[in-house]
From TrEMBL:
[4Fe-4S] cluster binds at C130, C259, C349. It is found in: Cytoplasm. One of its GO terms (molecular function) is transferase activity. This is Quinolinate synthase. Pathway: Cofactor biosynthesis; NAD(+) biosynthesis; quinolinate from iminoaspartate: step 1/1. Iminosuccinate binds at H66, S83, Y162, M163, N164, S183, H285, P286, E287, T302. Its EC number is 2.5.1.72. It comes from the Bacteria. It is an enzyme of class 2 (transferase).
């Protein structure tokens, strides 16, 4: 029998290219089906219909909106926030049987994990996924872990996953001794993870999923460590495209994932802003590339960006590198400040924007009629293991006092 080449043995599963809203993809965190008749976007009565449906539902519904949602949706939310703040707020409302989550799929999953069995989480458009979360499929991460076991380093490696990952990846992290982090607490989560394997100064490792940029920025900027300690694991290559020596020498094994919005901001845009707006303060999200983060004045989560802009003296000039819906809203709400968007070639997050007023009206009116559309239900075992990872995050020093 002819020898099978290594490439043939380890060639990755073909990537499924699904048209959003059609068919199903069990390896993806995306929801992909959107049944039912949606109101026409041109319906002039949409605002009145949304108002009437919310009024009819009263306290039975709690509508959450991520900062990256459209204004037309934010208008009907009961609270806004980043993904973790919203999941915690959902958990703090056990009296509301319906949680309508205006955000993306992984956020609604986290809300389902953290709320009671009596509550139902609804995502108004199941095609609202997240390209970053989709870059780490469970079978790929399990293959990676098997390779780390074979390389003899799994025992000294702690997996840490960003909130922006599927419940299945959070569960993987939970059952392998790891935790979840957000863009607000990544430094504390990494410090905790390294403490489990000998400390930041030691020789242990972190497998950071799925956003390589948040992992790299936290290691280099927040922990003041060397960029050369980081390697990138490419799930489409045998052994992540790394040599055994590279794996053994690394301290941070970064999954090759990124945000398709924040990954597009460039150092040139920061330089242009500084040239064109004298005295400008540049603030960016840590999902941006390290070269961009290194040039910024401030780096932080959406909550931190909002706080920084809101509390700055009137007349401060800002250039902001995060999703456009939030930057436009900040500019509208703070006319006393001069606020610009960092990069003219970067557009809205297309999946966040899938939640629009017609989908929200459809979800709310269906609930009024007693029909639950697009419920997000995480498998019980997966939910339990994901909760283990989330609980470890909640137990991080100082976690409960922050958003
Ligand atoms: S902005 Fe980036 S990380 Fe957030 S939902 Fe969109 S693709 Fe995902």
């Amino acid at each position: 029998m002819p020898a099978v080449s290594q490439t043939t043995q380890t060639s990755p599963a073909p990537l499924s290219l699904l048209v959003l809203g059609q068919d199903s993809d069990p390896h993806s965190e995306r929801g992909v089906e959107c049944p039912g008749d949606l109101p026409e976007p041109s319906d002039p009565g949409l605002v009145a219909r949304a108002r009437a449906a919310k009024e009819a539902l009263g306290d039975r519904v709690f509508v959450l909106g991520h900062h990256y949602q459209r204004d037309e949706v934010i208008e009907f939310t009961d609270t806004t926030g980043d993904s973790f703040k919203l999941a915690k707020e959902a958990a703090a409302r056990p009296d509301a049987p319906y949680i309508v989550f205006c955000g993306v799929h992984f956020m609604a999953e986290s809300a389902d994990v953290l709320t009671s069995d009596e509550q139902t989480v609804v995502l108004p458009d199941l095609a609202a996924g997240c390209s970053m979360a989709d870059m780490a499929a469970l079978h790929q991460v399990e293959d990676c872990w098997d390779d780390l076991v074979e390389a003899g380093v799994a025992e000294s490696t702690i997996p840490v996953t960003y909130m922006n990952s599927s419940a299945a990846i959070k569960a993987f992290t939970g059952r392998n001794g790891g935790t979840v982090c957000t863009s607000s607490n990544a430094e504390r989560a990494l410090t905790w993870a390294f403490d489990q394997v000998g400390g930041v100064e030691g020789e242990g490792k972190v497998l950071f999923l799925p956003d390589q940029h948040l992992g790299r920025n936290t290691w280099a900027r927040d922990l003041g460590r060397d960029l050369e300690d980081c390697v990138v694991w490419n799930p489409h290559l045998p052994m992540g495209g790394l040599t055994l020596e590279e794996i053994r020498d690394a301290r941070m094994i970064l999954w090759r994932g990124h945000c398709s919005v924040h990954g597009r901001f460039t150092p040139e845009a920061v330089e242009t802003a500084r040239r064109e707006i004298p005295g400008v303060r540049v603030i960016v999200h840590p999902e941006c590339r390290n070269e961009v983060v290194a040039l910024a004045d401030e780096v932080g989560s959406t909550e931190k960006i909002i706080r920084a802009v809101s509390s700055a003296p009137a007349g401060t000039k800002w250039v902001v590198g995060t999703e456009l819906n939030l930057v436009q809203r900040l500019a509208k709400e703070h006319p006393e400040q001069q606020i610009s968007f960092l990069e003219k070639n970067v557009c809205y997050c297309s999946t966040m924007n899938r939640i629009d007023l017609p989908h929200l009206v459809w979800a709310l009116e269906s609930l009024v009629e007693g029909r639950v559309v697009n419920p997000i239900v995480v498998d019980e075992t997966v939910a339990e293991q994901a909760r283990t990872a989330l609980d470890r995050m909640l137990a991080l020093p100082g976690e409960r006092s922050t958003d």
